[in-house]
Design a protein that fits this description.
Blueprint lengths: L16 E3 L2 E3 L2 H10 L2 H16 L23
Antiparallel strand pairs: 1-2
């Protein structure tokens, strides 16, 4: 499976532009995507970015892997 740009579906070069968990092949694709977003959506993304940056990092619990559902016993973790 080859990863592709989330805007133009083109292949990535040496540099990948990122915006809110999305990957773009160029700054132009990223700006075009951002230009298509409505004002409300941009505000939501801004608030989520702010919350994500301010979230405290805790190591109070251990991460326990859960079994993969829907793949049967053969692919269960």
């Amino acid at each position: 499976m080859t990863l592709r740009c989330d805007y133009c579906r083109g292949p990535f070069g040496l540099i990948i532009q990122r915006y809110w968990r999305m990957r773009f092949c160029s700054e132009a694709c990223k700006k075009s995507y951002q230009g298509r977003l409505g004002e409300i959506t941009r505000d939501k993304i801004g608030r989520l970015d702010h919350l994500e940056c301010d979230a405290p990092v805790t190591n109070d619990h251990q991460s326990v892997p859960r079994p993969v559902r829907g793949f049967g016993r053969r692919f269960a973790a």
